């Protein structure tokens, strides 16, 4: 007796344990399967096809007890490109030999680059969706799993270590072949990789076990130092790669993901903060949302015949990713299909030309359709989730600016890091009030700055000292309970102002 699990890559049989859900079974089997809400039953994304003694049906894996026998078919694993590009090659410390790995340990994705320490040559890049996806899309869900299960922390660490081993194997080497490894990730992900409890980060006052300022007990392993619980080694590595710590200019560094992490400053130091923008920009919590992978709508434009969609990989669209959602919001705001306060209009109130693309749900709330067959749509609830996320980013920027005593004209550049920042239309982000319009022309795309910083620290030992100097030069501003942020946040909920630029 047992369950046959079928994926696009392989088939295996596994015996279910007493009281186990299908999601827990998939976790135990090591299947790379996304469960954004961590098994709470709220996101509806862990749908699988189950055939057992009672018939065949689509079920939520996290809410369905595993039968004693049957066939479980897992949907096609998400494809698509993961951002590995990370800028020019750095200088190297002479006289070293052997292989090294630079790792960008992201919440959503993991990228590993294998390098020759003697000459800095890249020997290959492997990338994958984070193996902890079955435990939730955000770090808090993963923290909770580690806290609530007796062996939860060890399980999460094992999954991460095994994933990196598999990525090395993909590049033709073993972990023991490496002389050195440098890891840059957010504070929680670095804790989980190191097997340290992140419990203190999940609750106020958000104190991590370590900021990785001490030498790693494991020989040849270096973690990028962190600034705070929610400004991690990916940010210090990104700042290193940006070159900002060496420049007289004062600029804004922004990495928007599950959390919006930002740093304002330059050679004289940085003021940092993090906002809980949530995973909405990664498609989580959005009815037709998805990650920026094959089949996702990445950009939206309006034509005389309706929405014009750009789909990753071509073909028929199956969902909307973050860059597409921001384009869509900007379009609907421009055409006044969404009010300044975030109301998605119904067909009777719609501007001319939009009537055919609008409908209402059972509660009378507006729905905007992106396709003629109405398979792909944006709901009023979706707009609200994105509104909350964009307001958090906008409010965070404003509070940093005020705390630093700066105006927009004082900002030399806006550096956008990470995959989302690379593919996002900056003008669309400004149109919905997420980014300052005055900084659009000053924007510099950094690509994968976390990997670039990890690579620099791997190949040049002086860069490791620079990472610690950067951390020491960062002053962290906690926004939880911050009166100025609490005042700004509701004000930034508005998508646009009719007659004035609220950023100046």
Question: Can you put this structure into words, describing what you see?
Answer:
The protein is an alpha/beta fold and 504 residues long. Among the domains are: 3-73, Ubiquitin-like (UB roll) (Roll), CATH 3.10.20; 279-384, no CATH class. The protein has 13 helices and 22 strands. The protein has helices at residues 22-29, 139-148, 152-170, 187-194, 199-202, 233-242, 322-334, 380-404, 418-423, 426-431, 449-459, 461-472, 483-491, and strands at residues 3-6, 11-14, 47-52, 55-60, 70-73, 99-105, 109-116, 122-129, 178-185, 221-223, 251-256, 260-266, 269-275, 296-303, 306-311, 319-320, 358-360, 366-369, 377-379, 414-417, 443-445, 474-476. The strands form five sheets. A six-stranded mixed sheet has the order 21-20-11-12-13-22, sandwiched between helices. Helix 6 (233-242) packs across helix 12 (461-472), helix 8 (380-404) crosses helix 13 (483-491) and helix 11 (449-459) packs across helix 12 (461-472). The longest helix has 25 residues, at 380-404.
